[in-house]
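Exercise 7. Given the encoded structure of a 221-residue chain, write a plausible sequence.
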C-alpha cells in the first residue's frame, strides 16, 4: 500500500468516526442542550418521592455536570391556566435551537372537571391546552417543543377517565404536525401502566420518574 492509499484509508476512517459521533449525538440530548420542564407533577413529582428520585433529579444525574442544563418550572397541581405563569418565568435567553421544552399539562383539568362523560368538554380543554402550546411557540420560536401525553392513573377508581385520556391523546396525535411544525411526543400512556409506576395510584413513582427522565433525554435532535 502506497502513501496515497494510506492517506485515503485514514481519511475514510476519520469520516466514519465523525459520522458515528454525529449519529450518536442526534439520538438524544446532551449536557450542551438546555432542558426546560413546564407543567404539573408529572415533571415535578418531588413531593411524592425521595429527594434523589424525582424526574428532575434523574435528569440531572443523566446529564452530569450538576445538571446545570436542567430547569424545572413545573409545579405540583398545575392546570393549563397556571402554566402561563411558568412560561413568564422562562428567560428569553433560552430562545435558541439548543433549548428543548417539555410540556405536561391537562391531566389536572380533566380530574377537576370530571369530564369522563362529555367529549365536548375534553375538546374545549384541549383547545385551551393548544393555545398554551402556541403561546410557548410565540415566546420561544427557536426552541423545540416536546409534548408529553396523558397516562391513565392506576386503579379502578380512575377507569372512568379512560375515554377522556384516550380522546386527549388522539387529539395530540392529530396536532403533532401542525402549521408547518412537527412536535415530538413522549408517550407516557404506554410507558406507565403498572402499580410500581405510581405513588397513591396517580403520581409518578421513582420507577416512573426514571422512565420519564430517560424518555426526555432520548429526545431526538
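Solution.
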Amino acid at each position: 500500500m502506497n502513501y496515497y492509499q494510506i492517506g485515503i484509508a485514514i481519511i475514510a476512517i476519520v469520516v466514519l468516526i465523525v459520522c458515528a459521533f454525529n449519529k450518536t449525538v442526534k439520538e438524544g440530548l446532551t449536557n450542551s442542550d438546555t432542558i426546560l420542564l413546564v407543567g404539573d407533577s408529572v415533571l415535578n413529582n418531588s413531593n411524592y418521592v425521595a429527594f434523589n428520585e424525582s424526574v428532575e433529579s434523574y435528569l440531572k444525574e443523566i446529564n452530569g455536570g450538576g445538571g446545570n442544563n436542567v430547569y424545572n418550572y413545573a409545579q405540583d397541581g398545575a392546570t393549563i391556566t397556571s402554566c402561563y405563569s411558568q412560561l413568564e418565568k422562562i428567560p428569553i435567553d433560552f430562545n435558541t435551537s439548543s433549548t428543548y421544552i417539555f410540556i405536561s399539562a391537562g391531566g389536572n383539568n380533566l380530574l377537576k372537571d370530571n369530564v369522563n362523560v362529555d367529549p365536548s368538554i375534553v375538546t374545549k380543554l384541549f383547545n385551551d391546552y393548544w393555545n398554551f402550546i402556541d403561546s410557548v411557540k410565540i415566546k420561544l420560536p427557536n426552541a423545540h417543543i416536546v409534548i408529553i401525553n396523558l397516562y391513565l392513573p392506576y386503579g379502578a377508581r380512575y377507569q372512568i377517565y379512560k375515554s377522556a385520556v384516550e380522546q386527549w391523546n388522539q387529539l395530540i396525535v392529530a396536532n403533532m404536525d401542525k402549521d408547518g411544525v412537527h412536535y415530538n411526543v413522549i408517550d407516557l400512556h404506554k410507558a406507565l401502566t403498572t402499580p410500581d409506576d405510581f405513588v397513591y395510584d396517580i403520581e409518578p413513582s421513582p420507577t416512573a420518574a426514571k422512565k420519564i427522565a430517560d424518555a426526555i433525554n432520548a429526545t431526538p435532535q
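Remark. The first helix runs from residue 3 to 26. Students should compare their own answers with the one above.
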